[in-house]
Amino acid sequence: MFLSGEIAALDAYELLTDGRDIPVFAWRLRPGHTDKWTLYHLSERLRIKGWLVPAYPLSGDQSEQTVMRIVCRNGLSRDLAEDLLRDIREETEFLDGLDGPMPHEGLVKTFHH
């Protein structure tokens, strides 16, 4: 709940689930937030820092919607959660600060729903 609450507090994101029922939650880029980057770019930047936070399209009628999801394993420490949040904040700030759009060439969708 801590992680999902902190991500929900960031202007760029909108929670779809909060992890209240099971320790899994998902969010999307808030509609209209930016046209410079996507969640695939955020996922790639987090991967560079060692985090595997998938971005992927939903299925069926919602296939145009891209989300990110985190599954919190038993034993996830507050320190580790804060490290992840720091990196999400830093990378979001970096992406939001771009003068132009991130290139899409070579960006590979590595996760699928």
UniProtKB/TrEMBL annotation:
Source species, please? Agromyces marinus
| Lineage top rank: taxon | Bacteria
> Which Gene3D superfamilies does the annotation name?
3.90.1150.160
This protein's name:
Glutamate decarboxylase
Similarity section: Belongs to the group II decarboxylase family.
Family annotation (SUPFAM superfamilies): PLP-dependent transferases (SSF53383)
